[in-house]
Amino acid sequence: MTVEGEQKPLKNTYSAPALEKGFDVLELLADHPAGLTMTEIAAGLDRSINELFRLVVVMERRGYLRKVPETDRYRVTYHVLDLAYRATPVQDLTHVAAPVMYDLAHAVLQSCHLVVPAESRGLVVLRQENPGPTGFSVRLGAPIDLLQSCSGNVLLAFTDADRLYTLLGARSGEAPAALAEVEPVLAAIRAHGFERRPSPMTHGVIDISYPVFGFDGHLAAALTIPFLERIDGSQPVAIDAGQALLAEAAHAVSAGLGWYGASEG
Hints:
Layout: H1 17-30, H2 38-45, H3 49-61, E1 65-68, E2 73-76, H4 78-87, H5 90-108, E3 112-118, E4 121-128, E5 143-144, H6 150-157, H7 164-168, H8 175-192, E6 195-198, E7 205-213, E8 219-228, H9 239-256
Antiparallel strand pairs: 1-2, 3-4, 3-8, 4-5, 6-7, 7-8
Helix pairs in contact: 1-3, 2-3, 5-9, 6-8
């Protein structure tokens, strides 16, 4: 009961302890691909084994976790990835992009990968290995730094202004300063229609990335080649020729999603 004229407090938060514990378990195990024992899960979450045991058993029964018999370690299953693919536009995107990326990798003899925007980062949702004897590739599911990486900057450059802070997610508090610092780079990417730069992590790799657009004209992903340069001069496809094929592939994926804007780059 409230006094007349007194504003009734709003409920800004709701509590679902069991659900939150389940998410905590998934997020903890996501950082430990080799899995964790029940004791290690409890220690990692600063909770008791009794508090988590039934919850983990249910998650295993529902297919979200799998217990490795030899080690008693629990691991996240591909059921989580399957759910994400079916519940988001990623399913259509990867369905369209897969054959295009296969052809691209075989034409350029380099690996390629597809990065979608996620909260505060990019996420590799599809990759195609180099069909040649040697190569460099980024693993499926790898997180991509939006502010430092080639793919991440392409995602930022072509994301609508009103969606940028949502895209940066947990980094929203530092977003204005961070975006102001990187804006000259993003403006150049928008002007050129792509980005090409030495890898910030690996010598001998030149990252090349083009945007992919959905039917509504909004950014859907970044298609990227981590171009591995050979030091012996035996490069089967020159980097400029490979970039041209990447541009065509990105436009082909966009067209497959229903976007028929002018080709970039």
